[in-house]
Structures are given as structure tokens and as C-alpha cells.
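Exercise 7. Predict the joint structure of the components listed below.
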Amino acid sequence: MDKKREAINRVMADFLEIPKDLVLDLPRLTLTGRNELYLENHRGIIEYTLTRLRINLSRGFLEIQGHNLEIKYLLPEEISVYGEIEAIKFLD
Amino acid sequence: MDNRILNQMEGIISVRLYGQSCEKVINMASMRGIYIWDIRREEKYLEFKIRKSAYEALTNIAADNNYQMEIIKVQGMPFFKKIIQRRSGFLSGALLFILAIYLMSSFIWFIEVENNQKIDTSTIVLTAAKHGLYKGAAKWSFSRSEVEKQILIDINQLSYVKVDIRGVKATIEVVEKILPGDEITGPCHIVAAKDGVVEEILLLEGQANAKEGEAVSKGDIIISGIVFYQPSTFLGDEAKNETEDVAPEIVRARGIVRARVWYEGYGECKRTSKKIVYTGRENRQIVIRTPWRDLIIRGEGDPGFKQFSQHMIKREIKSPLGSFGWLDVKTREKDIIVTRLSENEAVKAAREKAIQNLTARMKNHERPQDVKLEILSSPSDAVLRCRVAVEVLEDIAKAEPINEQ
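Solution:
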């Protein structure tokens, strides 16, 4: 049911040329160099250590691997991560 | 959201959160709208910063979920209290300073009057003082527009007043009225403004009291404003009797009275004059000065000039032993030349001075008619003194109102 709805939303967003992160509640990532990551539309932190950070998304979650990871700030919808980022993975 | 100044104003608390999976607490806090930043994982705890206002909410969340919390550091304005208490003297001093500056700047310290030509500055300043604008007056103690209005009322020679206050300086800008000359419209006599011999009277209105060639002194009525009825010589005796008791007519006398007037001037001139000249002979001396003796490098010690002027350049360094240095002395011989003026030259110079002296007093700088020179000093005197008398033709008519009693 949810997948059907998502598909319809996607088609609608495509048709009306509306940014998908707004319609589909998709995460938006901004990576500056390899040290700063800015993420919008998150659903909370699942796990946080200095080498691994897992962030919940509307579908699945994001895993960031690196060294000395630090959360610069945390807001209900936004998160900013600082540190030596090595990998960003999307997981279901 | 990351506004550092705002955070500082509100107060920042650094917190340590102990326990397993602290992420849960952070998520909950974030969901409730608590702004969390600088989150850092250490081995046993999670360290982060929150605003002071969010602290209570966070403690509640932590307590509900059995997490232990610890404050490490506090920052920002609300936590300066201790510092403020410790340095209360300094802060109150600063406050006092600002207060003093504010207080001092709310008084008028300087008053300046601009654009006044005939009216004395002191008159305007005094009038302004009467209405509250004086040196040392508090700015709130008077109203600018009120002072402007009152000055205008008090000094009726002014047509416009503007009081401008800039900082501690008040500028009173005025515009003076151009008053019409005090023309006499009522009945009046024409009197002599000064002593003289009447040369010519042009009578326009009134009755002439003086004849041409008559000497008048200052204040004499020349043209009378009181005109007595003069019966015609052609009328018979009967008619004369009828008109005898006709009251005199009072008019505004008008006319031009040209008279010969004298001016006297005094001048003097010295018969001998002294002049200082340089003969051209000069001596330059260069001396090296040591504490023990002066060494003359160039020039003579004493050139033997009777009169001279000296110009000295001196460079000296003072030391415990004495002074070291050098002197450059330039000596120029002077001579005094005495010149003696001849009698004619001295008279000419003295006369010139006397004429200058009297023309300064003459009203309209009329061309002198007749110049008389009188030498006052004897030929043997060192100073020649002379008096010059000048005769000029001048209008001496002056209107004077008739006092009616």
C-alpha cells in the first residue's frame, strides 16, 4: 500500500516538477569537502560512535563511517556532521 | 539556528550524559524542540551543549529514562553574575563614567551668537540667559522654541532667531531688522550741527533765522519751524490790525544750510632721525667647546667692533665632566647714521600728519577751501610741531523736533 502511494507521489512530483525531497520526504545531503555533512529530513540518530554514525531516514537509514565524527548540531529535521568521513552508505 | 550571540545571551550549558545508547535521549530531546549542538562521543559518555532554558526539559527526559547527567561547564551572560560580583567596583566605575559623560553632555557649555552686526553679543546672550539658556543650563530646563520666541519679543531689533543645540554647544543665529532711519515727520527746527559762518541758505519750508554771512554756533536755530504771520505790505492798517492776533503756524522746517566750518589738526615731526646700518664688516668665529678650554678654530676672539649684532648657533652635549660642543658665532658691525631734516622737510612731514589727523575727523571728506598752517615750536626744538586749520564748506543743517508744551 505504502509503496503504491510512493509511486504515485513520485509520478506526480515528476509531472508537476516539484522537488522530490518535499513531496516524498526524501533526505537531502550536502557534503562539503570530506569533512562536513549536512543532512535534512532525518528521523533521528540510531547509533553514534566516533567511527560510525547511523541516521534514521523515512525509508531505511544512512550510515556514515569515518574518524572523529562529531555532531555539530541537531535539530528535529536537520543534522550536521563534522569529522573525517570515509564512507556514506544507504541501508534498508 | 546556530546563532552564537543569541546562545551567549541565553546561556550555554555543557552536559555529559552517562549510560547505554544515549542516542535515544538525544532523539527525544530533539523531537521536543531542544537545540543540541557539539555532540561528541567519549568512551563512557556523550558530551554536548544545550541552551540554559532547555536544561530542565532535558533533565526530565534523562530522569524518566534513567540516565545520569552531569554539568561540566556553563557559559554566557546568565553565568557572569559571579564575575560581576567580583568586579563590582570596576563595573560601577564604568557605569559611573558613562553616567558622568551623559550627565555632562546634557548641559550647555558654550553659547555662540552668529550674524549679529549692530546688536551686542552680550545683549543677546543676556536675554537668552533670562529665558533659561545660559552656560551651565540643563538641556531639559528650557524649551528651544520658547527661548527663540522670548528673545524675539525682548529685542525688537531682531526679525528672526534660531537656537541650535549641538552637543554641549548652543548657537543662537539671529537676523537683524533693517529699521527705517528716524525721519522726523512732526514739526521741527533746522539747527546748526556745528559752529560756522553761514554761506548759503536754501529755504524750502519755515522761516530763516540767520542771514548769509552770519556766524552761528552749534545748536542755533537757522530755520525756524514756527512761522509767524507776516502781513502783506500792500494791505491797509485796518487789515493789519485784523491779522495781528493770528496764531503762528508750526511746520516742519526744511532747507539746506551751507556754511564755512573749520577743522584743526595737529602734527609733529622729529628733526633728527637715527638709522641703523650694517657696515659690511663681519667676523665669523667657530669655537670647539670642551670642559677644559674653548678652542677657536676660525676667526678672531674679539673683532673690535664698537657696535654689532651677533648670531650664534650652539650645539652642546652635557656630560658629567662638563659640556662638549661647538659654537658658530657671526658678528656683524653696525653703525648708526643720524640724519637731520631741514626745516622745510620737517614742516612738510608735520603738515602731512596734521592733515591726516584732521581729515579723519571730517564728515564727508570735503575738499579743503583754505589751509592755514601754524608752527608751534621754535626753530631750536628737536621736534617740529604744527597746527593746520582747514576751512571747508559743509551742510550743517540738522533737524530738531519742536517740543510742544
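Discussion. Residues 88-104 of chain B form the longest helix (17 residues).
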